[in-house]
Amino acid sequence: MQFSTIFVVLIATPLAVCSRLLVSLPSTAAFPNWNPSALTASTTASLTTISSTYTAPLRSDNTFDFRDVSPGSYLLDVHCSSHVFAPLRVDVSEAGQIESWGTFRGNEWDNKGEVVTVKNLGDLQNLDVKVLGEKSFYVERSGFSPLSLLKNPMILIAGFSMILVFGMPYLMDNMDPEMREEFEARQKTSPLTGGQAAANPLQNFDAAAWLAGSGPKKSELTEKSNVK
Amino acid sequence: MRPPKSLLCLALSILPTAVLAVFADEAGVVDYHYELLGLPKPDTTFFYRPRKEDKASLLYTLSDLGVVGAVNPGTGVPVWRQVLSSGSDSLSNGLLRGVDGDGVVVSALGKTVSAWDAISGRLKWQSKFSGQVRDLEVMESAIVSAEAKDVLALYEDGNKGILRRLTGNGGDLKWEFTDEASGVPFQISTSPKDVFVISLHAAGAGYNLKVTTLDPVTGKKVDEYTLSSKSDIFDIEDILLVGASSAAPILAWTDQAKQEVKVNILGKKAVQNLALREADGKLTKVTLHAPHLPQSQPHFLVFSQSASANRADVYHVDLKSNAITKAYELPKVGGTGTISTSSQDGNVFFTRMTQDEAILVSSASHGVLGRWPLKIDESHGSLLHAASEVVTRSTNLFAVRSAVATSNEDWVMIRNGAESWTRVEGLSGAIVADWAELPGEEQLAATLKAEAQTNPLASYLHRWQRHIQELEYLPAYLTELPKRVMSSIIPVESVTSDELVRDNFGFHKMVIVATQRGRLYGLNAGNRGKVVWSAKAYDIPDDSKWDVKGIWVDNVKGLVNVRGASGEYVLVKALTGQIIEKTSPGSWPPVTSSVVIDSASGKWFLPIGVDGNPGDIPSAWAPKDVLVVQGSNGEVRGLKYMEDGANSVPTAAWTFQPTGEKIINVVAKPAHDPVASIGRVLGDRTVLYKYLNPNTILVTAISETGSSLSMYLLDSVSGDILYSTSHSGVDTKQPITSILTENWFAYSMFGDSAPGTAEDALPLSKGYQLVVTELFESELANDRGPLGSLSNTSSLEPLDIPNAEPAIPHAVSQTFLIPEAISHMSVSETKQGITTRQLLCTLPTTNSIIGILYHIINPRRPVGRDPTPAEMEEGLFRYTPFIDFDPKMILTHKLNVIGIKGVITSPALLESTSLVFAYGIDIFGTRVVPSMAFDILGKGFNRLNLVATVLALQVGVMVLAPMVRRKQINGRWMTS
């Protein structure tokens, strides 16, 4: 296994300047119901890189305090049971200067996002993390409601045809006799209902025979219609 | 007929959330959670008011597992918990102090001193220094100020004691004092004027005590004196107390014979001897109880215990003359007991609890202020130590509540003599666990079988007899009937009973847990993890842990086998906890691991000795299969038992040791790993055959020098490498976990872009990775690879050709980036293996357990392109490198399940369901349905609605029937 010289140097120089990083939760309303003081005490943040990990619990002033961070390029994560936070890339230079960017999981490490401003407060440097949203653990069971039944298109179609079936005769009765005659005449000629004699082929469909594979002969069909 | 593809895709895209999520109405009903702290230690458990102005107090403790927590004394529910990590130092050395009036508790463990907000449990500040903290004290000042009180921490660094004063608002160093003389720094004590450092200096076999007086403002040494105690003190345990009320802090110890207590008032060089009186025999334990608040009266109590009785003496210190006088004594009472101190303003109260009663006395006079008969459950055992709080209701009416740790490792709150709540703290610190089946209705099956085997007439008569006998259950059945009918209409909670019988769904099982304190617990998983029994297997000293090397429940005999590292084993009845057989540590050779093997004489639990040597076994008990063991150098060995006379001797069939690498883990398939389908049916109705070799093991090896990880899949019969892969840039200090099941395996690690990798290598990402590899017999569909249609294969000589290569599986592998570390992996188990498997991962950073469905981590997800319709039909969707852990996948939902060491699963009788049990500091259990609950009606099924619909239809029919009938008659008869 090969090791870069930079890495070896990094380990071999304990005298390198160690930095103190203070990570703050946003205090302003990132979205409704955001209250950093209401986060559980089990919330932690971690700075991770190969062979070194720093973990800091959430403090009562809504910050995470990382002391003695040695130079390197770190992944900053905030682990919380109720909210999701954006991961950040935090680079600590040999001189102890801290830089930070947004990072995208699943992308190469050099693919840096937006620069996060790091405030220099004397012996410590401060940056803010971004809260992305609230975690929701549960799904509600979709219960039965009559209203949802009405939203069903099948039910809607059935309802419409019901209105047509029951409402139409009533409408027809109330119609002017002349108009009714005209209407009936038009209905007879209309292609949709017209030619009732040429009956719907499905009307006399013999399902059993069809399934049995012995399709009804044409003559039979005509015979049947004659009988009728 | 095929369902429309678009519909299927829609269903699959909805599937993950619908399947995995915890239903809001099932959270806390199906699952159960023991929020544990660990056993409270006597000196780090106290009542404390988090708000100065508020009378309400919380119960604070730092347990033997290094968990700091605040417990609501009214309900026994933890308000907050924090796990302290200790590094190298023993967890039992933790310290916890409440800063009076500041609303802060300060803990110290290892090299870290932390101040926690007493209400929220958030960190106030944290400081780390070199060395190990030996004592911690709050710097009480005579002047009342708004400033936070400073904290004194005594460190042992090398052979030197270093006292550091840390500021109360930031934990910054104010001054430090180094004791140049070599000695064991022991404790700190403060008075308004001085700070005392007590250290032990070896003198012959014993120790002398050195008291160094420091100026609290500057940290400069003011005075120093040595007390000659070398004939009395041979161990730190011999010192009774340092400190007490800071008005007159004392240092007390006993002589070896426990005949007198020697007390030194700190700052004064004189030692006063207080005689001890025997209590029905030689004293076994002497403890000293004193208040810790500076304003308390300088009174203390010496509690003397013998094997059969206990008594106490109360002493007063005269602040002017420094004389110690005996005020009164509490009479001798048989049995064991506890004393606890509580102070209220200047008054000091002692609560004495014996087996029968609790009494409250003031330190000033011997008058009993309150007396309550003690009514606590006998299963708690005897009382060990207590922390008490006294409330003055009126001048002569007192109430007292005490949190008592008992010998059966329960933590019981006793309010005025009555038990208020109990926390089963002994259950914390579980190291191994296993499932135990409950006895079912097998008698009936046995009877029926017996009947079938006798002659027809006899069996007919027997059957009549049986039926007549069964009539006695008829009244009970009839009374139950309305309830049963109702329960089938109105949904009721799934039956949770204390009865240990199997249920129809197979949800009722026992879990046997062994803890590091040498105790075994039997939990009823069917009744939300209720403790059925507990039994002490071994007495483990406070500073060590029981090193258990395996647990196995023999369901045929109903016995639990637990094997310890020192060769000890214990056999316990799974249902009752009755210890059948027990050997003491050291009576058998040491054990490094243990394994369940299948021999000609049945299954049994085989201990593996040092260097992976299981030793000779009688031939009838020798394992049928190859045994895989790990040697002392980490090498993996396959052992085959060869018959040699009456015994069988293990011989190494193969050895596997990758050069330059250290094997850190070996996993085999779960014991119960059924596979329902031998192939994966693709969208075009062809089949990829799964590589289902039962004799495979997955070996995890890390390079000894660099940062690389290698995974090897071995054939455990031949030792051949079936598949291997290597990752560079892996953090080998972070958890690397793996699992092998069915025809796939998964592992996770922290990967980084390793500098020094080849130029043309892909640019790597930094983060936790989950790698999933699926194995097939051939890369071609409808092809069974080199094995073809053979019905039998041999790992040693495949294909009937001598020296042929083994049949190498075709591996499809994919890496996913995940947001968190995984510390443990497990897989759901179902009865037939029809249900897809769910990967259960423990996430230590968010204290949760996640269930990942296989189709999300399917390595055959198409990369860089959208899935073809055939792939879509199969349920594959486009590969994305990052899998976000959807909160809906979290099995523990909002619960904070800390310190999980392992997760075990067991199939229920229902194919859809797998039982899950997690143990560690906390205990958590639930049921998972990876392919949805397809064989049981869930809560979503509304029986009432069904009945209502049927009734509505009935009414409709009744209304419409006459109408239709009339219309039909009219149609026949009416012409117009």
Automatic annotation (TrEMBL), chain A:
A cellular-component GO term for this protein: EMC complex
Keyword RNA-binding recorded: no
Subcellular location: Membrane
Residues annotated as transmembrane: 154-172
Domain ER membrane protein complex subunit 7 beta-sandwich stretches: 36-157
InterPro entries: Beta_sandwich_EMC7 (IPR019008), EMC7 (IPR039163)
Topology term for the membrane: Single-pass membrane protein
Signal peptide boundaries: 1-18
Keyword Transmembrane helix: yes
Keyword annotations of the record: Membrane, Signal, Transmembrane, Transmembrane helix
Name of the protein in question: ER membrane protein complex subunit 7 beta-sandwich domain-containing protein
Organism: Coleophoma crateriformis
Automatic annotation (TrEMBL), chain B:
Residue stretches spanning the membrane: 944-964
One biological process term in Gene Ontology: protein folding in endoplasmic reticulum
Subunit structure: Component of the ER membrane protein complex (EMC).
Name under which the protein is recorded: ER membrane protein complex subunit 1
Keywords: Endoplasmic reticulum, Glycoprotein, Membrane, Signal, Transmembrane, Transmembrane helix
Entry similarity comment: Belongs to the EMC1 family.
Pfam families cross-referenced by the UniProt entry: Beta-prop_EMC1_N (PF25293), EMC1_C (PF07774)
Entries under InterPro entries matching the protein: Beta-prop_EMC1_1st, EMC1, EMC1_C, Quinoprotein_ADH-like_sf, WD40/YVTN_repeat-like_dom_sf
Gene3D superfamilies linked: YVTN repeat-like/Quinoprotein amine dehydrogenase
Lipid bilayer topology: Single-pass type I membrane protein
EMC1 first beta-propeller domain sequence ranges: 21-425
Superkingdom of origin organism: Eukaryota
Residue stretches making up the ER membrane protein complex subunit 1 C-terminal domain: 741-973
Protein location: Endoplasmic reticulum membrane
GO cellular component: EMC complex
Cleaved signal peptide residues: 1-21
